[in-house]
Write a structure and sequence with these properties.
Number of strands: 8
Distance between the termini: 56 Å
Order of helices and strands: HEHEHEEEHHHHHHHEEEHH
Radius of gyration: 22 Å
Structural class: alpha/beta
Helix content: 40-55%
Largest sheet: 5 strands, mixed
Strand content: 5-15%
Strand order of the largest sheet: 1-2-5-4-3
Shape: globular
């Protein structure tokens, strides 16, 4: 790890790009942070791909993020840690001062060497034992690293599609508002986030195409939202591998035990979604579809898009505790 840390310099990023809902114009709430991705400098990762092993990449990432934070603080910015998401991939929330209402969230990305990228498929093990031997595949670990490596590609896919199809951007906003109302956004126990909802909308657009051009933009967005709800209600991604339309999945996903497999090549876009969250989303999507029917009860749609008063997590937890009978007094 010390060798990896020493390779990090205080030099500038290889590139900085605006990403996320700001660029695609799919922000669903006021005051949301604008996301910037700073790419690790050239040479930050070893060309032989060994930085994929045993957390070396995350050490390199943390070292560079610390250097970025130090530079921003020295320049007079107010910097805080960005919460939520994958704990292995933290970011920074940056403001010029306390009066700045809309912060900038600084994330890190990488353009990995080919040797490293080849190690990130779902059948590879990148967490070796003390004896150097490899055990079972580590798709969750690999996916966390791929999350940084694929930021640029997924940004290009979403932004290009939103420019070509206005209905996609409007549908993404609808889907995010609906997920927020159902308590999915911001969950720490495996909920569906805005990025995943946007990729599902892109998938549905690719599979079904846009609605007939004779309809208006609002109607096209609403029809695409219905298709997203049908996709989620069917829960097909929990039953088998669903590949992002137009992309070939890695062959290794067929044997994966991940609860949800919505994949783009070697990357599982739904890697952080738990089976319980997927089941909740499926039930809520079916209810929202019913609320969108013309013969639905008055106020049904408002209820579907409003945060419920009951607890967000509606599944039960069962804990089995072994008891020593000799200690029980009846």
């Amino acid at each position: 790890a010390s060798d990896v840390y020493k390779r990090q310099s205080a030099g500038p990023p290889a590139d900085v790009k605006v990403v996320g809902s700001w660029l695609a114009r799919t922000t669903s709430r006021s005051g949301a942070a604008m996301d910037l991705v700073a790419f690790l400098p050239a040479g930050a990762l070893a060309a032989n791909g060994k930085d994929a092993l045993n957390g070396r990449y995350f050490v390199a990432r943390a070292a560079y993020l610390a250097a970025v934070r130090e530079a921003l603080v020295s320049a007079g910015f107010a910097v805080a840690a960005a919460g939520g998401g994958d704990a292995r991939r933290p970011g920074l929330v940056v403001r010029r001062d306390a009066s700045q209402k809309i912060p900038v969230r600084v994330l890190l990305g990488c353009r990995p060497p080919a040797a490293l990228e080849r190690r990130l498929g779902p059948t590879f093990n990148n967490c070796r034992g003390a004896d150097g031997g490899s055990g079972d595949p580590t798709p969750g670990y690999n996916g966390a690293l791929l999350g940084d490596a694929t930021r640029e590609r997924h940004l290009a896919l979403l932004h290009g599609a939103c420019v070509a199809h206005a209905s996609l951007g409007d549908c993404c906003v609808l889907a995010k508002r609906w997920l927020a109302a159902r308590g999915q956004l911001g969950r720490t126990d495996g909920g569906v986030d805005g990025f995943l909802a946007s990729m599902v909308a892109l998938h549905c657009l690719r599979v079904h195409g846009d609605a007939p051009s004779a309809t208006g933009p609002e109607e096209r967005a609403l029809e695409l939202f219905r298709r997203v709800l049908r996709f989620l209600a069917a829960a097909a991604w929990s039953a088998g591998v669903v590949a992002l339309s137009g992309e070939a999945p890695d062959d290794g996903w067929a044997a994966s035990t991940a609860p949800v497999r919505f994949v783009d090549g070697a990357s599982n876009l739904a890697r952080r979604v738990s089976g319980a969250a997927a089941a909740e989303v499926a039930a809520d999507a079916a209810a929202c579809l019913a609320a969108l029917r013309r013969d639905a009860a008055p106020g049904a749609l408002d209820a579907a898009l409003t945060r419920p008063a009951y607890a967000v997590c509606r599944y039960d937890a069962f804990v089995r505790v072994p008891l020593e009978l000799s200690l029980i007094h009846i």
